[in-house]
Every structure is written in structure tokens, then in C-alpha cells.
Write a structure and sequence with these properties.
The complex is a heterodimer of chains A (about 325) and B (about 425). With about 325 residues, chain A is mainly α. Chain A contains 14 helices and no strands. Classes of the chains: A mainly alpha (about 325), B alpha/beta (about 425). The interface between A and B is medium-sized, with 27 and 34 residues.
């Protein structure tokens, strides 16, 4: 028996599609649209609408606050030309990409490790779950203020700890004031602050893996590493896709940490795309220009998310 | 935060009848008590009239963003304190009402000339912003260190240090074992208005400026030879380890005494005297070649276009600028008075007073920050360039970038009519 017939026999689907009852097609379509209507409306108002508005504004010299002296004008591609000519924009893009390239793998691996730790049957695991997740529910602003105090140069807690651990061999590091360390300091703080979120996603993924698979593997005398490699990793595929894309997008949205800890400095070493958009649109009131940057930003993030999906998530996800 | 709580508690919103106005006022929040003095003024206003005031004191970092957001939402506070050099920008953007028809002409006439200079909008010649106090910028010194290092102590503007003397003093002071870095430029205030306020006088004292004040073009002025030389000089000080890094905190001069000179405004005098006692010196601004220069201007009060009862707002201004308020701010941070008639309540600035030098510098060698709507961008471009140079950027390139940024903003706003070259 050919494969499709076997499946059909097993599931009881009619063999000939033309015999399928037609009403269900229209009915399903109608009720389907009804179900997504709410979501579509909200998406339209809060996502698609603003994006189309940004696209329109990006071709004008719109200001945040209207001014009678400077009427809004259509200025064609001037915003885009200036954007691509601005070294600050390229610098912000470079920093953002670097941040994502470093944070996404480290944070994903770390959150998976933490999730596996607290998924085991260690005593007190609920306490650890809570502790690892705590930073996620603390406001980022407060986390940044606390980390800012840890990073104080030369006498902050981190420098004191490093100097104590190395018996004074390490000189104090100006974490937020040195171009070579500022981005690393932001990365450290960001990972600490948000690793708990991905951990919870992975924990949910881990708990969805049927225990029988591991039992069967243990009967076959598979080692812990083999179980991880051949059961845990493949079964987590949809979770990987989600975590990867979500973390990348989080990374590209990096703003609060740099705004509070470094204001993009020193010498632009931690400026990011979102901060660039914020400064241009909000502090300098150039909404048209900021809209152009937003459009470019969205296209970049969209392209990366689609490439990631194409590579890792071919099926369901 | 504490500020907000206390003010909200202090102003219980009790209705006093139909004519009573509910006014909102907003100023910066100060950690040394100057905003408390203004809040006390608003409380006296509440006690004397049937109006109510909700007073918000918010941190000065991000203040400009908060004002723009309120303006975009059409919800500016009735009475708003702004940093002096932003007056032109806010008037041009239509946020403010002229004070001439609203406020008692006697009060306006009583403002010091520096206050009038700062608050007058060029195109219509009207006054939009009046502040209770001015601020004075100079250099504080530690007498013990200067004497130990054998540095000449100048008496006044006429015998101010030259560039050679100033650099020689820094070199000698750096040698002292008590001193880590001799010059505290308050880099701990961060990148922002402080850098423009405090360090554009260096550029001007070398013969440069932030922008051409006739043609309103930055290119050729902010990146002129003199301006570049000024930033090269500062970069040199930093490379020699003469400048206290921003991350060292506030107290290197008056607290741990690891610096010998402090480039700071009048609010440094009080902690300086508490920390150093009689060793505190108030020194004139150095002459870097084209004569010594100091900055002028301070935060001042405006009435916004969103004020529903401008007359009540104007009455409130009288209290916020009352002699008692000025005395309170003088008490908190030894600020020089913004009103001529209140000069007697700030006696240390009088002839023979220990702060007379500030007043003399304000009268003789002060240059106001450019009164132009592009000022916020001029300031952010200059302070960014200054910070970049401290972090090792090439001064010419940093200032070229600042010039491009300013000129681009002016072009984007069609030359800010009716300004323009």
C-alpha cells in the first residue's frame, strides 16, 4: 500500500479530496477570520499602522513639535541619504550587531544550562527557579542603577572583588569609561538581567519532552551526553527557533542599559540603533529623520529574523 | 523622588472657590536645597492667594526631553523653569509667552543686565525668561597645595594666570604626593550642558567660539584653528593625567583632597569651605591668549503657551523671584542674585565680599551662550566633541563633526526663520 493511502486509512480521511464536504471550507474560513479579527485589529492599530506612518514620515521633515516657521515638506530621500552618510549611524549599527553576535549565543547556551539544572530533581529547585527568574521581573532601570554602582571606578564592588581575588595583581578597570570595556560591561549586565526569561522558555520546552524517550534511551545505555545530543536538542527545536529569534530582537532593541549606564559613550562605543533613533527623534525633535532610521532598522531586523528561520526552523515552529 | 513626595504632600489640593486657579510649576530638582527655596516661594504664594500650585521638581538630566514630550502632548506646565540658553529654542518653537504684558514692569526692570541678556529673544526683543539667581563660574583652589607647590596665587581678573602659568601650575601640583590629578573639571556631571557652560569659555579665551554669531554658521568657527587649539590643549592636560576622571565622583577637591584646583561654578563654594576651611581660594578664570572669559546664565522661569490663567501664573512668578526665595537659594548654594534690588541679600558678592570676584567676572568678562534656536544642538554637538576629545579623538575631526551636525540642523530647519545669515 502506498504511503499516502496508509496514512489515509489510518486517519480515516476520505481518499478522494473532491468528496470532502464543501461547506466546511467556507465555514472554516469565515470563523477563522472572526477569530483573528481582534488580533489583526490590534496589530493594525499598533504595529502596521505606525509602520506605514513611519514610512510616510521618513520622506518628510516632520518635527516632534509642530512649528509655524517650518512647514512640513516632502523632502524625498534626503533623510535616507543623510542616514547612510552619517558615521554615527554606522557606528550604532556596528555596536548593535556586535552586541547581538556576542549575546545571542552566550545567553541561549546559558539559559539552556540553567533550565536543565533547575529541571533536574535537585532539592530546593523551586528556590533556584525563583532566584534565576528574579532579574526578569525587576525593572531594567533599577538593575542598571545597581550595576552602575558595581562598576564604579576605581573603588566599586567589581573592581574591589577582582583586585582581592587576584591579590592586587589586576589594576582597577574603568568599566563604563573605557572604550575597550564599556560594551563588555553592558553585555554582562544585560545577560544577567534577561537570561531568566529564556530560561523559563527552555524550561517549558524541556518539560514537554516525554519522559519515555529518556527511559528508552537509558535502556539502550545511552550516556547523559548522548541523551542530550539526540533527544533534548532535537526535541527543543521549536524552542530554539523562538529563543533565537526573540533574543536577537531583544538584542537589537538594546536601549535602557546604554541610556542609563553610558549614554552611548565613551566616544560612541556603546551607542545603539534604538538610542540613535531616540536621540534624533526625541531629543533633537527630528521625527522625519528618526522615522527613516526606524524603517531601516525594521528592515534589518526583519531580514535577520527571516534568515534565522530559514536556517533553523524549516518546519512547524 | 523624595522631592516629589514632599511637594505632593505639601500642596494638598484644597479648593478655594471658583476664581482659584490650579497652577502647575516645574523646575529642576537640586540636591543642595535650591529647589526647596523655590518650593517655599510657591508655598507662600498658596498661603497668600486662593490659588493652588502643584510643583514638580525633576532631575536636570533629561529635562529637555521631558519638556519636549510635554510640548508634543500639549501639556506644558503653566510655569516652567528652563536652562537659560534654551530660551531662544523654546520661544522659536512657540512654547513660551512673552512676559512683558503679564509681569509687573517693576520686576522686569529690576532684573540684572545678565538676566535680561539671557532672557531676551532677539527677533522681537521681548523678555521671556527671568531667573531668581545667576551663576558664576570660576576656579577654586586649595591654598595649602598651591603654596606648597610654589604657585603664584592671582588676586583678580587683571593678574589672571596665563596659559603658560596655568599649565606650569598644573605640572607642579601634579608633583605633590597628596595629589592624584590636580584639576577637577567636574567630568562626573557627564556629557551635557555642563561641558558647554564650563568649557566653551576655554575656546573663547583662545579666540574661538561655538558658532558665528552674525551668520549663524558653525563651520569655520567651532572648528576654527583657535577652537581646535583649545581642545588640543585640554586633550594634552588629560594625556598628562592632570584632569580628574569623571568616574572618580564629586569629592576629589573638597572631600578626599586628591585634586588641587576645581573648575566649578558658585555651588562649589559651600562644600569647598566646609572641606578646606580657610584654605579655599576663589581664583579668576585664566587668560588663554585672548583674555579671560567666564560663562553666564542660569535656570530661569517662563510662562508657557499652555497656561490657562497666565495672570495667576505671572503672580506666582513674583513669589518664585521674591527676595526671600533668592535669599533661600543664596543660603543653599551661594548663588548671585538675579535681581538688582536683592543684591543686598547676597552680601558676599558685594564689593569687599569674598565672592566679589564672581560678580566682577559676570560684569566684565562673561560671554553668553549663543542666543539662537539651534542652541540645544550646538550644545549637544560641542559637549559630545569635548567628551570625544577627552577620550582620545582627534580634535579637528571631532569639531568638524560638530560643525557638520549644527549646520545640518540649521539647514533642516530652513535656517530657523526669522534668524538666518
Amino acid at each position: 500500500m502506498p504511503a499516502d493511502q496508509r496514512i489515509a486509512a489510518a486517519t480515516g480521511t476520505p481518499r478522494d479530496p473532491s468528496q470532502a464536504p464543501t461547506y466546511s471550507v467556507y465555514g472554516a474560513a469565515w470563523s477563522g477570520w472572526a477569530f483573528v479579527a481582534v488580533a489583526l485589529t490590534l496589530l493594525g492599530i499598533f504595529v502596521i499602522g505606525p509602520f506605514i506612518m513611519s514610512l510616510g514620515l521618513s520622506f518628510t521633515n516632520q518635527r516632534l513639535v509642530q512649528n509655524p516657521n517650518v512647514p512640513v515638506q516632502w523632502i524625498g530621500l534626503r533623510n535616507y541619504v543623510r542616514l547612510f552618510e552619517d558615521p554615527e549611524f554606522w557606528n550604532a549599527l556596528k555596536n548593535t550587531a556586535l552586541f547581538a553576535l556576542i549575546v545571542v549565543p552566550i545567553q541561549s547556551a546559558l539559559s539552556l544550562s540553567l533550565a536543565m539544572l533547575i529541571n533536574s530533581s535537585l532539592p530546593g529547585r523551586n528556590v533556584f527557579r525563583t532566584i534565576y527568574f528574579l532579574p526578569v521581573i525587576i525593572t531594567m532601570t533599577i538593575i542598571c542603577v545597581i550595576w552602575g554602582a558595581l562598576y564604579i571606578f576605581p573603588g566599586g564592588a567589581l573592581n574591589s572583588a577582582l583586585s582581592w581575588l587576584t591579590f592586587g595583581a589586576l589594576d582597577p578597570v574603568n568599566w563604563l569609561g573605557d572604550r575597550n570595556f564599556a560594551l563588555a560591561a553592558i553585555i554582562l549586565c544585560s545577560i544577567w538581567a534577561s537570561v531568566g526569561f529564556q530560561m523559563v522558555i527552555y524550561l517549558a520546552g524541556l518539560q514537554n519532552i516525554p519522559e519515555e524517550l529518556y527511559e528508552a534511551a537509558r535502556l539502550d545505555e545511552a550516556s547523559g551526553w548522548q541523551q542530550f545530543k539526540w533527544i533534548t536538542m532535537p526535541m527543543l527545536r521549536p524552542t530554539h527557533v523562538f529563543v533565537l529569534i526573540a533574543t536577537t530582537i531583544f538584542c537589537f532593541k538594546l536601549f535602557t542599559q546604554v541610556q542609563i549606564l553610558t549614554q552611548g559613550g565613551p566616544r560612541g562605543a556603546t551607542n545603539t540603533l534604538v538610542r540613535y533613533i531616540y536621540v534624533n527623534g526625541f531629543s533633537e525633535l527630528r521625527v522625519g529623520y528618526a522615522s527613516a532610521a526606524t524603517v531601516v532598522f525594521l528592515l534589518i531586523v526583519l531580514a535577520i529574523a527571516m534568515i534565522q528561520r530559514a536556517i533553523v526552523g524549516t518546519d512547524e515552529a | 523622588m523624595k522631592q516629589l513626595l514632599t511637594t505632593t504632600i505639601a500642596f494638598g489640593l484644597v479648593a478655594h472657590g471658583a476664581a482659584a486657579a490650579e497652577l502647575t510649576a516645574q523646575s529642576y530638582a537640586s540636591s543642595i536645597g535650591t529647589s526647596d527655596a523655590m518650593i517655599a516661594g510657591a508655598e507662600r504664594f498658596e498661603a497668600d492667594t486662593e490659588h493652588d500650585v502643584t510643583y514638580n521638581a525633576i532631575p536636570s538630566s533629561g529635562y529637555n526631553d521631558a519638556v519636549n514630550a510635554a510640548a508634543a502632548a500639549g501639556d506644558l506646565p503653566d510655569v516652567l523653569m528652563i536652562d537659560g540658553p534654551n530660551v531662544a529654542n523654546y520661544v522659536w518653537a512657540g512654547y513660551l509667552r512673552p512676559l512683558n504684558e503679564l509681569v509687573d514692569p517693576e520686576l522686569l526692570a529690576d532684573m540684572t543686565s545678565a538676566m535680561k541678556k539671557q532672557g531676551t529673544y532677539g527677533p522681537d526683543g521681548k523678555l521671556y525668561c527671568i531667573g531668581p539667581v545667576d551663576a558664576g563660574l570660576s576656579i577654586l583652589g586649595n591654598r595649602a597645595y598651591l603654596e606648597k607647590a610654589g604657585v603664584r596665587i592671582p588676586e583678580g581678573i587683571d593678574d589672571a594666570w596665563t596659559r603658560e602659568e596655568f599649565e606650569d601650575a598644573l605640572a607642579k601640583l601634579a608633583e605633590l604626593e597628596e595629589v592624584d590629578a590636580p584639576l577637577d573639571m567636574k567630568l562626573n556631571y557627564g556629557v551635557g550642558e555642563w561641558m558647554t557652560y564650563a568649557f566653551s569659555p576655554i575656546v573663547q579665551s583662545m579666540g574661538g567660539d561655538l558658532i558665528d554669531r552674525e551668520t549663524w554658521k558653525a563651520d569655520g568657527t567651532i572648528n576654527s584653528e583657535a577652537s581646535v587649539a583649545a581642545l588640543e590643549m585640554v586633550q594634552g592636560w588629560n594625556e598628562k593625567g592632570w584632569i580628574v576622571p569623571g568616574s572618580a565622583g564629586d569629592a576629589s577637591f573638597y572631600g578626599d583632597k586628591t585634586s588641587a584646583l576645581s573648575w566649578i561654578a558658585n555651588w562649589g563654594v559651600k562644600p569647598g569651605q566646609e572641606g578646606l576651611g580657610d584654605d579655599l581660594l576663589i581664583l579668576p578664570m585664566p587668560d588663554f591668549g585672548s583674555g579671560p572669559v567666564t560663562a553666564l546664565g542660569s535656570w530661569c522661569w517662563t510662562i508657557t503657551r499652555d497656561a490657562e490663567d497666565p495672570q495667576a501664573a505671572a503672580d506666582l512668578l513674583e513669589y518664585l523671584l521674591a527676595p526671600e526665595t533668592i535669599a533661600g537659594m543664596y543660603e543653599a548654594g551661594v548663588y548671585p542674585s538675579g535681581r538688582t534690588s536683592a543684591l543686598s541679600s547676597t552680601p558676599r558678592y558685594d564689593a569687599g565680599g569674598d565672592l566679589e570676584l564672581y560678580q566682577k567676572q559676570l560684569d566684565q568678562i562673561a560671554i553668553e551662550r549663543p542666543v539662537h534656536p539651534a542652541y540645544p544642538v550646538i550644545s549637544s554637538a560641542f559637549s559630545q566633541a569635548f567628551d570625544d576629545v577627552l577620550n582620545g579623538a582627534d580634535p579637528q575631526k571631532a569639531l568638524d563633526a560638530a560643525a557638520a551636525k549644527i549646520d545640518r540642523d540649521i539647514e533642516d530647519n530652513a535656517g530657523y526663520p526669522p534668524f538666518g545669515g
